[in-house]
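User: Hey, quick favor. My workstation is busy. Could you predict this chain's structure for me?
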Amino acid sequence: MLTSHQQMKFKAVIFDLFGTLVDDFGSSVGQMHHEMAAALALPYEEFMALWGKTAKMRIIGAFETVEANIKYVCDTIKVSPTAEQLEKAVEIRMKYIGQALRPRPDAISTISELKNRDHKIGLLSNCSIEIPILWHETPFADSFDTTIFSSRERLKKPDARIFNLACERLGTMPASCLYIADGEDHELKAAASVGLHPVLIRTASHKNRGELHQEAKDWQGPSIDSLKEVLQLVGA
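Assistant: No problem, here it is.
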């Protein structure tokens, strides 16, 4: 559903990552955690209780490596994994995160066409350190004019500063920039507050799983059902 942005022209498009350019983590995340706990010889429930509590720390860059995050959890539990156990747990984590960074079918083609039309392209993601570490190995590696990862910048959505930072690095004013996202962390309202033009993406996978974020459920602004619709939004 395209509405108020159809008649406007934009110089830049900033994309969210998970739930937008790639799918949200599915059932594989549970398997990853089970494998990590097993590699560390820790009870799954005990491992998960603490691993979950470090999620916000990961997002704002408290851990510069995956190993540091795992060590923090182990130290808190007061266990000392061997170097081999630690290496295996890191390997498992990186494998699953890498698999999660597979582009949606129309992601690369949409970004390529936007670049062909001379639009600046940015990425803005709340994510742990694995994402920027693995980024150069993904099909997205050379697709963006700037990439803003919360764990690198130590800022996260919905902080207005991270949206302004993305615009600054793209060399564009917020008013000439679209922001495409699935509504996690109340990012759409935050983007609008600094002058960007937010658009909610509602994909088939969101609808099929019934997993719209709260902001998406309440969203009254412009929305799209696929990434290729962004090409209509940017204007001629």
